[in-house]
Amino acid sequence: MAATDTLARNRAFIAANTRLAPVDGLPLPHRKPLETLRIWQADEITPIWSATEADLDRQGIEPPFWAFPWAGGQAVARLILEQPEIVRGKRVLDIACGSGMVGIAAAAAGAREVWVNDIDPICEAAAQLNAEANGVSLCWLAGNLLDRAPPDVDVILAGDIFYEMTMAARFLQWLKQAAAQGVAAYAGDPGRAYAPEGEAGLMAEYEIATTVELESMERRRARVWNISVY
């Protein structure tokens, strides 16, 4: 199947199985009052919410991490919207982008260009749809970036990457490599087991609304780590 056909199919799947909804705590700058960043999300009234992993596997769909505003990503997005000078006029990469929420925040905050990347190809469609819903543009970067040197950007943002030991270590090493090249690198963490405490500077901390279904609690304290200071 041609790449354009796959993208169109994935866009249709997302529109049919999720709904466009605001993310609390992420007001967009220079917009009318109360306009909040929105993404296509799964919830209890959308079909994908109750789909089992086996159901998704039969459709050739990976678990839909792109369909949720994860707390770590919300924290990074909030930091960027509160401190737009971090990205304003700069080239930004949102890695492990999922929905593209963090990249959208960067674009809305005035980044010169924003690239988004995820190993799940359906994230291209999710990020594209979500960018359109928020009136910004994102550029898709395919492939596993951890297998190559960090790209030539000014800022790298990662939403929620410290939930599994081996992958967390790979991400941290890669972000440190980027920081050593002069890239400003920030990563969100809602209290995951493999957060880089002692290996990064604490940039910000927020109380993030979540759901019991996602995080086993209604609120999480999420932090943003500055990898560049170590």
Textual characterization of the structure:
This protein has a single domain, classed as Rossmann fold. It starts with a helix and ends with a strand. The protein is an alpha/beta fold. The strands form 2 sheets. A 7-stranded mixed beta sheet has the order 5-4-3-6-7-9-8, with helices on both faces. Strand 3, helix 4 and strand 4 (113-117) form a beta-alpha-beta unit. The mean pLDDT is 90. It has 7 helices and 9 strands; from the N terminus they run αββααβαβαββαββαβ. The protein is 32% helix and 23% strand. Helix 1 packs across helix 5 and helix 3 (71-82) runs parallel beside helix 4 (101-108).
In CATH terms, the superfamily is: Vaccinia Virus protein VP39
The averaged pLDDT comes out at 90
What is the third-level CATH name, the topology?
Rossmann fold
End-to-end distance: 45 Å
From the alpha carbons, calculate the radius of gyration and give it in angstroms: 17 Å
Number of domains: 1
How many individual helices?
7
**Which architecture per CATH?**
3-Layer(aba) Sandwich
| Main sheet properties | 7 strands, mixed
H and E order: HEEHHEHEHEEHEEHE
User: Based on DSSP secondary structure assignment, what is the total number of beta strands?
Assistant: 9
Contiguous uncertain segments of 5+ residues:
none
Q: Helix fraction?
A: 25-40%
CATH secondary-structure class: Alpha Beta
